Amino acid sequence: MTTTPTGTESATAPTGTESATARRAVGTAHTRVEGYEKVTGTARYAGEIPFADLAHGTLVLSTVAHGRIVSVDEAGALRMPGVLAVLHHGNAPRIETDYVGFLGAPDPTTAVFQHDRVPTKGWPVALVVAETPEQAAEAAASLEVTYREEPHDTAFRPEHPDAYLPGSTIVGPPVSERGDQSAALAASAFVVDELYETAEMHHSAMEPHAATARWDGGRLEIVDSNQGTVWVASELAKLFSLDLSAIRVRSEHVGGGFGSKGCRAHQVAAVMATTQLQRPVRVVMTRRQTFSLAGHRAPTAQRVRLGADAEGRLLALDHESLNQTAAGYEWVEPAALPARTMYDAQAHRTAHRLVRLNVPSPTAMRAPGEAPGSFALESAMDELAERCGVDPVELRVRNDTQVAPGSGKPFTARRLVGCLREGARRFGWEQRTPRPGATREGRWLIGTGVACASFSAGAMPTTAAITAHADGTYTVHVNASDIGTGARTALTLVAADELGTDTEHVRVRLGDSDLGPAGIAGGSTGTRSWAWAVGLAARDLRERLALGADIPPQGVTVRSDTTEAIKALGHRERHSFGAQFAEVAVDPDTGEVRVRRMLGVFAAGQIVNPLTARNQLVGGMTWGISMALHEEAVRDTRTGGHYSPDLAGYHVAANADVPRVEAHWIDDPDPEDPVGIKGIGEIGTVGAAAAVANAVWHATGVRQRALPVRPDRVLAGGAGSTGA
Questions:
Q1: Please, where are the H alpha helices in 296-415?
Q2: How many helices and strands in the chain, by DSSP H and E?
Q3: 3-state SS class at 274
Q4: Residues pairing with 83 in the sheet
Q5: 682 catalytically annotated
Q6: Which of these is catalytic: 138, 386, 498, 682?
Q7: Phi and psi dihedrals of 310, rounded to 5?
Q8: DSSP one-letter string for 649-673
Q9: At 355, which helix (H) or strand (E)?
Q10: How far is Cα 313 from Cα 330, in angstroms, rounded to an integer?
Q11: What residues have CB less than 8 Å from 679, skipping those under 6 apart?
């Protein structure tokens, strides 16, 4: 089964590279194979798994934004009931912090209790361990830490005097430039030159960040909630100078990660405590602690300059982004990435700049770079359409390109125009009145908006093994991380097809570093990476079984490794694409914005499981609505900390905010992927906020160039002043 351009199921055979087995499971809707366990509560998450003699740790965070620790008075805490230990910079084990980490540079956030310096408010200064979580929390609250404060700077602003170009980024050079911008802008009939801003955002996964560490027969075991067990194991091995084989990390069920669940302070602290106490120790972040310890999406200030000819075709594109980073760590929020993919121009320039502040380290957050970057670029494209007098959908179609502007490489496939056309048809775009502020329903101003989306389609080297059992069942071993995306189910479908069996005969084991190296759940690469390895192993196993050999009691096992296959991929750009459409209602008296409906159409490779895929896409679009209207972490520049760092003060979209969201897709398998997968984890988020903001302009006639679109910003712009 496959998916037709209308997003419904069809019995036609999929295009692209095929296995020897006709597709039977891939492309058909399947409920999650672990669904029963999750709805009945028998699926245990990291903070729920029982251990004998388990102790509990609570992190103590700094109350100053910059300075040094003068003293830690642990005596009082140690006298409290149940308290077993207090770890801090004066007594904690020394660890190795000067190493190349997973993201390419030493991450100072894992160097807990190694010095007396405090770089930011919310920095871990101690761990209190007790017999119960309640005892640990009470003692942690009473721990007396004295500081010597130093001047701090936490104010992010577009014209910060200390902004600079980073040495390098993991997504390419900080600056890419081609052509003469000044000449192209001078030759342009229409020019847009505006500043767009996005707020600091936080991951807020439903499942807390939790880790239990223990020594088992001379081997360190971590039961964790993470996005890649090998990622965490390799970081801890380097930190504690251990051989990788001496560490086992398990993470069977994960309740959301979004980029935040790598190696963090709580895992390092748990290992320190279990080493000292020689008993299992669990450390769980509180919700408020995640705002300091789990990373965040850095706020951005982005200047976009566009120049176009009389027909709206781009002659100049200049996209420069500034984001905050921690004082001791460079994190680039690559917001100019969409410009390197979406639209070409004779003169094309992108740049990323940073400013070091006394804030916690930013990190990857769902659709890093593309989510905030698409807001700026797609808002600017909408402004260009207005000035050119060209329909916003048509303007984007006119500027489609089959070669990536940033690299000069052709795309394996780029069905962006197909997404725009299909989305416009489904949304009823042709009924739109072009003039802003022209449509009312009672007191509400009604507007519609559109934006495009892209996200890279990569793959990471992965190993897998499959065992055929004498009873006709199969066990798949692959170190995948199912962070709620339905990866376990998708891999079951892929394996069943390649093995020529029913899904009921396939069991998938994942989330265990002992299963071998594998790609992480991140960057929309997870399912593609794991399915590639599972498919290779399944085909090899099926060929062996076809020879007619009897299966011994221990079964027959084959292994695969995709390292060489991924190296051999052609040098072309691989991306998922999409088009987002939104309809909003705006109250001109209060500034309230309500999203009434949203529709997205995506070209995102072979859809393995339409049921969970639609969940992913709708979830991503919901996140985009939340980014557009709600999410904003505000810092008190006096103290350096957040106002209300919890889900009462940090607002996210709720069910009432998302009345109608539709996700559809068009046929778009990757011809160089054995299953045709591209990835869908992030593409749903990209472009969604821009579509909402563009719809607000259409409703009110007032541009919103800063997110979130708060009521005060709507009123400040004079909502409804151009209305009928």
A1: 337-341, 370-388, 392-398
A2: 17, 26
A3: helix
A4: 130
A5: yes
A6: 682
A7: -65, -25
A8: TS----GGG-S-EEEEE-----TTS
A9: strand 347-357
A10: 36
A11: 455, 457, 458, 523, 524, 525, 526, 527, 528, 576, 604, 605
| Block residue for tokens 């006119």 | 398
Q: Which of 487, 650, 697 is nearest to 476 (CA)?
A: 487
**pLDDT tens, residue by residue, 309-350:** 999 999 999 999 999 999 988 899 999 999 999 999 999 999
Compute the average pLDDT of residues 705-710.
Answer: 98
CA–CA separation, 620 vs 615, rounded Å? 8
Contact 487, 521 (CB under 8 A): yes
Asked whether 633 and 448 are in contact (CB, 8 A), the reply is no
Confidence of residue 514 (pLDDT cuts 50, 70, 90): very high
8 Å CB contact between 558 and 465: yes
- The contacts of residue 564 (CB under 8 Å, 6+ apart) are none
Residue whose entry in the numeric block shows the structure tokens 């570093």: 513
Bridge partner list, 585: 446, 594
d(CA 575, CA 457): 5
Q: Which of 551, 146, 194 is nearest to 380 (CA)?
A: 194
How many residues in the chain? Answer: 724
- Other beta carbons less than 10 A from residue 641's beta carbon: 21
Residue type, 538: A
Q: What is the pLDDT of residues 660-697, one digit of tens each?
A: 999 999 999 998 889 999 999 999 999 999 999 999 99
CA distance 208 to 36: 22
Helix (H) or strand (E) holding 322: strand 314-326
Cis ω before 708 (30° cut-off from 0): yes
- Do β-strands 440-441 and 444-456 pair in parallel, antiparallel, or remain unpaired? antiparallel
Residue type, 198: T
Residue 238 backbone phi and psi in degrees, to 5: -70, -40
